[in-house]
Design goal:
Helix content is 11%, strand content 50%. With 284 residues, the chain is mainly β. α1 runs antiparallel to α2 (255-274). The chain is globular.
Length: 284
């Protein structure tokens, strides 16, 4: 693919505002970044080893936010037995898009026995924002995948919420080339973000996804008990997915509550499935 072009499904070929392509491989019992390319508004930090043999990467947007007509492409490849943790440096802000929506496409490939923890900061959509997100994940045998997504409305100086125009988010997960999850989230709020029948009166939505060979019904029950102990104004539900997967969906009225719940679920999953402690990303 021409590095200055990116293909967006049903939208055609556009010049990208930012491109990131990265591969991680295991070498001498340690995961290293085997190749990395970025251009435009997308950059990535040097790997930080907060845990032995596991690189943590921070995705960086060098602009002040996503604006009208921006197009972003990210390709992540985790080779056999490699482990990688990826997050963002800060929240993603989408501003008014009067002519063209912002488009973000992410493609992830996990080879046999690999693990990717892909937990991004919230997406904040301001007044007049239109945003398309498409994430496609290919998982091979015995690999593990943790993923989070948080969508929140922007706010005005007086603290009131801005209703964005709309958000389209599609997540597709393939295991052994078989589609095992197609999650299509469409948000189009009216003028009153907290009105009845608008996400059941809630304004913020979060998703936490797990694919792991040990993520069975017993694990789901234990995770549910862990989440049920969370004492706050929140609604959540979870369900088992084909091919050893679990999805957790959260509705709340603040970003912090969702972040705390996802952090708790992530820490529990790390401990139970990976035999590791919870992680502190050390962003601030």
């Amino acid at each position: 693919m021409d590095q200055n072009q990116c293909t967006i499904v049903r939208i055609g070929i556009m010049k990208c505002t930012g491109v990131l392509q990265l591969s991680a491989a295991k070498k001498r019992q340690k995961t290293i970044i085997s190749s990395c390319y970025h251009e435009g508004a997308l950059k990535v930090s040097r790997p930080i080893y907060l845990e032995k043999d596991l690189p943590f990467l921070y995705l960086i947007h060098v602009g002040g936010g996503y604006v009208d007509g921006d197009v972003y492409l990210t390709n992540l490849n985790v080779e056999e037995e490699a482990e990688l943790a990826v997050t963002t440096q800060s929240a993603t802000k989408v501003y008014k898009t009067p002519k063209k929506p912002v488009v973000q496409q992410t493609n992830i490939h996990l080879k046999k026995g690999s693990v990717l923890e892909y937990l991004l900061d919230p997406l904040i959509a301001y007044k007049g924002a239109r945003f398309i997100q498409e994430t496609t994940v290919h998982i091979e045998e015995d690999s593990g995948f943790f993923y989070s997504d948080v969508i929140t409305p922007g706010w005005a100086e007086d603290g009131s919420l801005f209703p964005y125009d709309w958000i389209r988010s599609k997540l597709k997960v393939y295991k052994k080339d078989r589609l095992v999850l197609f999650d299509h989230l469409r948000l189009e709020p009216d003028e009153d973000m907290s009105g009845m029948l608008q996400m059941d009166g809630y304004t913020h939505i979060g998703t936490f996804l797990i694919f792991h060979q040990k993520a069975d019904k017993t694990f789901l029950d234990r995770l549910y008990d862990e989440m049920e102990a969370f004492d706050s104004d929140v609604r959540f539900g979870m369900t088992s997915l084909p091919a050893s997967g679990i999805i957790l969906r959260i509705l709340a009225r603040s970003t912090g509550i969702i972040e705390n719940m996802i952090s708790r679920a992530h820490s529990f999953a790390r401990r139970e499935l990976l035999g590791k402690n919870g992680v502190t990303w050390r962003k601030y």
